[in-house]
Specification:
mainly alpha, 3-stranded antiparallel sheet, two-stranded antiparallel ribbon
Length: 238
């Protein structure tokens, strides 16, 4: 593998190690969420240090941070590996995300002002403006859609008023993202109208109908879970 050429020449000398660690962490996080590093993949510190042209310590610290986020597992005997996936974990992640994100959405509807409602509309409009997958490859998400999708769902709950709630929600979103990427890469030919699902959430949110919004959000997450299960009937951590 070639080096990614990380460069922090403009940073003060005492900040460079921390910056390098953060850069490695960001790159590994992106590769795990996109499933370029698949579930269960062993992560060799020396190999990653060579790939990124950084120290062993920088890679070890980056991996330790990802362990804290639940994206990497550490073992005294086996070192580091990408956290495995499983049907049971998928169901647990989905139900917990419904609970946490549903609560955050409900609070946002109760507390959000007109500016927040306008932000929800803008994020939905921006999401609808880009394709769901690449036209010539339905097994890969259009990358800008992924970015806007993340912004859309985060905007929906931004007015909840709880940094703790948002933090838990963000961790669950990342875990869900891995499953969704795995499913679409194994294109199961099942179709869904994602835009309509999002529109139902937005419509209820703009009407400040918290019950309807949470129901629409829950259906959206459960639909994703069922499609992932169809695409990955023998999901495992190997």
């Amino acid at each position: 593998m070639s080096s990614i050429g990380l460069s922090f020449d403009d940073s003060p000398a005492d900040e460079r190690p921390r910056s390098l660690t953060s850069a490695v962490q960001g790159r590994l996080r992106a590769d795990i969420l996109s499933t370029r590093l698949p579930p269960g993949q062993k992560l060799h510190i020396a190999g990653l240090a060579k790939q990124f042209s950084v120290s062993l310590a920088a890679v070890r610290e980056a991996l330790s941070r990802l362990v804290a986020d639940g994206l990497v597992q550490a073992s005294d005997q086996r070192g580091f590996r990408v956290s495995p996936v499983s049907p049971a974990d998928l169901r647990d992640v989905t139900q917990t995300r419904i609970d946490i994100e549903g609560l955050a959405l409900r609070r946002s509807i109760e507390r959000g002002d007109a500016a927040w409602l306008a932000a929800v509309e803008r994020s939905f409009t921006a999401l609808c403006a880009v394709p769901y997958t690449y036209p010539d490859d339905p097994t890969h998400h259009y990358e800008e859609w992924v970015v806007r999708h993340r912004v859309f769902h985060r905007t929906l709950v931004n007015a909840c008023g709880s940094p703790w709630l948002l933090g838990f929600r963000d961790v669950l979103h990342e875990q869900s993202e891995r499953y969704r990427r795995l499913a679409i890469r194994r294109n199961n030919k099942k179709t869904r109208n994602v835009e309509a699902e999002h529109a139902a959430i937005v419509r209820a949110t703009l009407q400040r109908d918290a019950d309807a919004a949470v129901v629409a959000l829950s259906k959206h997450f459960m639909t994703t879970m069922r499609l992932v299960e169809l695409a990955t009937p023998s999901t495992s951590g190997t």
